[in-house]
Amino acid sequence: CTYALDSQALTIRDRAATLINRGILRSRLDDTDGALSDYNAGLALNGSLGEGYVDRGAVYISMRKYDEAISDINKGIELGAREPHIAYYDRAIVDEAMGNIRGAYEDYKKAVELEPNFTLATEQLARFKVIRKSGDGS
Q1: Pick from 63, 57, 59, 41: nearest CA to 107
Q2: Among residues 46, 47, 56, which one has the least CA distance to residue 22?
Q3: Average pLDDT estimate for 94-119
Q4: 11 three-state secondary structure
Q5: What's the half-sphere exposure (Cβ side, CA atoms, 13 Å) at 13?
Q6: For the chain, how long is the longest CA-to-CA vector?
Q7: Which residues contact 75 (CB under 8 A, 6 or more apart)?
Q8: pLDDT tier for residue 131 given thresholds of 50, 70 and 90
Q9: b/e per residue 49-58 (b: at least 16 CB within 10 A)
Q10: DSSP designation for 23
């Protein structure tokens, strides 16, 4: 990614996507500062890349910056991120961390609806016990 950014004539969209991709790689190497820098630069060039917001949200989760994380993840969902099941999974993590258990359950459930073979979400969903309130007051 760095080679392409430094030596290739890239369109603005390709440059933005390459920065987002490098941010993903830096995030996987636990370089949160480098990842955030790349996500910020990529999104500054092209703010319509939903996956960039979801990925930046994931870095904010690792930093325990939940307000920023949920804002970015919601923006990514709104922009039509290419892998929405991951966005809902990440949002569920934030929901749970912020004490919104019902929201976490609903988001894990949505992640599984979108991608039935998404094991991480299925495993998290299995931790929940749904209790239905009876309508007769008992």
Answers
A1: 57
A2: 56
A3: 96
A4: coil
A5: 3
A6: 70
A7: 50, 53
A8: confident
A9: bbbbbbbbbb
A10: H
Q: Which of 23, 29, 68 is nearest to 42 (CA)?
A: 23
Query: Which amino acid belongs to residue 7?
Result: S
| Alpha carbons 56 and 76: distance in angstroms, whole number | 10
- CA distances (Å), origin 109, targets 38, 83, 105: 31, 15, 6
- Phi/psi at 128 (5° precision): -90, 145
User: Per-residue pLDDT tens for 31-49?
Assistant: 999 999 999 999 999 999 9
Q: Spell out the residues 6+ positions from residue 85 whose beta carbon is closer than 8 angstroms to its own.
A: 110, 111, 112, 114, 115, 118, 121
